[in-house]
Write a structure and sequence with these properties.
Rubrerythrin, domain 2, about 60 residues, about 0% helix
């Protein structure tokens, strides 16, 4: 059997929020199963929205 690799999680370098593709982001209507790379350019970190942290301030978490 081939093991399916789950999408990588990403961490915000400002507030340490972890984006988990398995959960998505309810605050911005991102459905579960959406990989980080598929997030729209308008997506912002839900924890530091005030700072308007963009996707570029996230780092891929290594398993």
């Amino acid at each position: 059997m081939e093991e399916k690799k789950k999408p990588a999680r990403w961490v915000c370098l400002e507030c340490h929020y972890i984006y988990d593709p398995a959960k998505g982001d309810k605050t911005q209507n991102i459905p579960p199963g959406t990989p980080f790379e598929a997030l729209p350019d308008t997506w912002r970190c839900p924890e530091c929205k005030i700072l308007k942290v963009k996707k570029g301030v996230f780092k891929k978490l290594e398993d």
